[in-house]
Structures are given as C-alpha cells and as structure tokens.
Write a structure and sequence with these properties.
By secondary structure, this protein is of the alpha+beta class. It has two domains: about 35 residues, no CATH class; about 70 residues, K Homology domain, type 1 (Ribosomal Protein S8, Chain: A, domain 1), CATH 3.30.1370.10. Helices cover about 25% and strands about 30% of the residues. The strands form two sheets. It has a three-stranded antiparallel β-sheet with strand order 3-5-4. Helix 2 runs antiparallel to helix 3. It is elongated, with a radius of gyration of 17 Å.
C-alpha cells in the first residue's frame, strides 16, 4: 500500500527508496519507489578521471546524486586482470538522478 505508483508490484530483490517513520507502534516505510538502473561502459581512463584511481570518489557522487553505483571489471580465472579497456557501471536510482550522475561522470554537457 506504500508503493508509488500504487499499481506497482515489486519483485524479490528490487532496490527501493523509501521514507522511514516511527508512529509510536514501531518503524514504518512510506513512499516506497523502485529504483531504476542504467548500465554503461566507460573507458578506464575516463572512469579513473571521474571516480579516482581506485574509485575513492564514487561515494561522493552517490551521495550528491542519491544514486548507487556498482562498478565491475573482468578478471581471468587465475585472478589476473582481464585486460578489457573499459569498466561496466550500474547506476541505480530515480531516472533524473541517474541522468545527472552519468552526465557528471562522463563530463558531458546536457545543454551542448
């Protein structure tokens, strides 16, 4: 009953945002919204320039835009680097927040 829009049904494992409240009887959640995801690849150089050599700037981007970012790189069976020239990113959040985060990370100008 707290899902927005009301007709939405969540699947198991859905990432959601919600407002937490306490009503005297316990904790509750309202305005529950399923997060959307955008998957993209970025060249290593661009990813490291945007997020830092080891991703140390990712938490700031997540907080600033209220998104969650997951970064994936491929490894070989022996654990050595896969050698691919890019990193795969998943950016989870509300659509406009995802757009703002990706625009910032890629250095693109929305109005150009």
């Amino acid at each position: 009953e707290d899902l927005l829009p009301r007709w939405t049904k969540l699947t198991v494992g859905s990432l959601v945002e919600f407002h937490l409240y306490f009503d005297g009887q316990g904790l509750g959640a309202e305005e529950c919204v399923a997060r959307k995801v955008l998957r993209l690849t970025l060249p290593w150089e661009l990813a490291q320039s945007a997020f830092g050599e080891n991703g140390e700037n990712l938490p700031e981007l997540e907080v600033r835009h209220q998104v969650s970012v997951r970064a994936y790189q491929w490894k070989l069976m022996d654990g050595s680097p896969g050698g691919l020239p890019f990193v795969l990113l998943e950016v989870w959040g509300r659509p406009q927040a995802i757009v703002r985060a990706v625009v910032e990370a890629t250095g693109k100008d929305l109005h150009a």
